[in-house]
Each structure stands twice: as C-alpha cells, then as structure tokens.
C-alpha cells in the first residue's frame, strides 16, 4: 500500500460488496470515528428499512461479524479506513486513496458545500477575463475587446460543460449504494 493511488482492481474489489459500500457511506456521513456496533446497527436499519429498535439480534450479529472479520480489515489493508481492532472503531482515512474511492461512488469527501480546485480556477479565469474586457473598453483598446469576448465565451462554455457533465453530484443519503444482493 505504498502507493498514493488506488488501483482500479482494488477499488472495484472493495466496492463489490454492499456492506462495505454501506460502511463507507456511514463513515462519510458521520465524518468521525464510529464503533463497529453503531455502524452495524445503522447499516442493518438502512438495508432492512427498519428502526434500530426493531433489529433482530441474528441480523445484527451477521452484519457486525462481517464488518469485524472481513470488511473493516479489508478497507484498512487498502488504507481507506483507520481501523482500531482493540477498540473496534473505524473512521475514514484522510488520504488520496480514500478520496478517490469515495468519488467513484459519487460521495464528495469534502462535503457538498466545497468547490473543487478545477471549478475555482475556471471561475477565477472567467472573472479575470471579464475584468480585462471592462478595462479594455474603458481605455479604448477596441481591437482587444472581441478577442477578450471570445476568450470569455470559451471560458463560460467550459464552466457550463464542467458543471453539467464532469462534476460528480454529492450523495446525501447513499441509499442507492445498496444495489447488489451480496453480503
């Protein structure tokens, strides 16, 4: 796991299991360390669509044991989570591997309110070009206005293209991550 990036095979392998996907969702939504017991109860409630008071011990134990024995250790081995086996707590690791894996499933690891660097650069460029157009118009450099307008138009087109196609929409509920019937 010395690499900073996660391989496609590793990412798809980790995401191939519904309980691992749900654990990632629970951790991403909470933003803090969770006990495996609490995570298991939340996962059972989400997958079964029931309140935590209605969860049977059999179903809970099945999820808890799979998290403890399989899923948390696998995510930890890939550097996606920090897993304390003695305390039985798990939290998302803050690294590029985790961010990449979360983005694959459409979870914005920085929260829904953050703007990614690329969007910020494009928007800043558009503001600079618009300002230059205004300055050129004020100082009478009429021949530069059409070129500045062309650049501003291209930047505006790219911003629209990026916002409509390239950017992943953040997932607030993660309910659609439970699409497979595996366990």
Specify Rg, calculated over alpha carbons.
23 Å
Integer tally of domains: 2
- Indicate the percent of residues in helices: 55-70%
In DSSP terms (H or I, runs of 4 or more residues), the helix count works out at: 7
Spell the H/E element sequence.
Answer: HHEHHEEHHH
Q: How much of the sequence is in beta strands?
A: 5-15%
Cα-to-Cα separation, first versus last residue: 25 Å
Structural class: mainly alpha
Sum up the overall morphology in one term: elongated
Low-pLDDT sequence parts: 166-172, 178-183
Mean pLDDT value: 77
Q: Give the assembly state of these chains.
A: single chain
Explain what you see.
Residues 166-172 and 178-183 have low confidence and may be disordered. This protein folds into two domains: 8-112; 117-166. The two termini are 25 Å apart. The chain is 60% helix and 5% strand. The protein is mostly helical and 183 residues long.
Highlighted features:
mainly alpha; three-stranded antiparallel beta sheet; 183 residues; 2 domains; DUF7344 domain-containing protein
């Amino acid at each position: 796991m010395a690499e900073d990036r996660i391989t496609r095979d590793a990412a798809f392998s980790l995401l191939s299991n519904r309980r691992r996907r749900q654990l990632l969702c629970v951790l991403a939504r909470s933003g803090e360390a969770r006990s495996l017991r609490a995570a298991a109860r939340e996962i059972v409630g989400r997958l079964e669509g029931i309140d935590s008071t209605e969860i049977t011990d059999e179903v809970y134990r099945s999820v808890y044991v799979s998290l403890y024995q399989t899923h948390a250790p696998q995510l930890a081995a890939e550097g996606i989570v920090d897993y304390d086996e003695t305390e039985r707590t798990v939290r998302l690791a803050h690294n590029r591997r985790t961010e990449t894996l979360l983005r694959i499933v459409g979870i914005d690891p920085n929260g829904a309110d953050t703007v990614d660097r690329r969007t910020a650069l494009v928007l800043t460029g558009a503001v600079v070009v618009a300002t230059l157009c205004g300055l050129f118009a004020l100082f009478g450099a009429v021949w530069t206005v059409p070129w500045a307008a062309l650049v501003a138009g291209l930047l505006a087109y790219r911003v629209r293209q990026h916002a409509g196609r390239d950017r992943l929409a953040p997932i607030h509920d993660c309910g659609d991550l439970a699409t497979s019937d595996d366990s």
